Fold this protein.
Amino acid sequence: MGKKTTAIAFANNKGGSGKTTTCANVGYSLSLLGRKVLLIDGDMQMNLSLSFFPEERVLDFAAGDKNLYYAVKKQEDLTDYVIASPYTNLDVIPSSVLMSGIEYELFAKGQREFILKNCLAKIRESCVYDYILIDAPPTLGGWVTNILCAVDGVILPVEASPWGLFGVANMFEFLDGVKKLAPKPALLGIVVTKMDSRKNYGKQTLEALRRFEEVSVFSTIIRVDSEIEWAQDNSKPVYAYKRNARSAGEYLELAKEVEEYVHRRRQH
């Protein structure tokens, strides 16, 4: 079997789920495992871009025309929008604050649900990357539909908190709706994030998620770790900031688990 590119979206319509942090750190961990990874920042908040580049540089990307917003607006091949990160095997397509208007840009275009898929077509066909990971904004609408129509699978990060489960059912329903347009995006699994094992509600969240039928919950749980915030403050993935941090090891284990899931799905 030749090399194949797998595209995965990290999505949750609830903010604060650890979605961007999970996307950034799983992407970096996959690159450590020798995989070639492209990260796409699909959120106007630009936090995925900020996970790898200092703020001044991210603002330069946003102010220029080499960002995701302009590529989608012009419906151009994304190859020319790729920026090398400071890390081996890891590239990024940055975002822009203008992404706040992307729904308006898509509204009048024909086949609008598949614009991102078409922009990604050449990169996918080239098989340069093992993985394309896309950070979706915490909304449900035309742009998230675009992202889900462009990927093979979805990972749903859920915060282990009393509010963590809020909206999960909506996400399932939304994904079912997208499958009528593009049957491909399978829910690869749920990642439990921000787990504080001293608090009961974390365990309750985990138990509730495991009761969902036909939805896998990744074995690796991302626990609360202050090193994550310090790494973000330094525009670095956790492992690059402090390789012996607990969360650095957890993200690496999660990346291995993602690889296993993808490999299993390819066998079917």
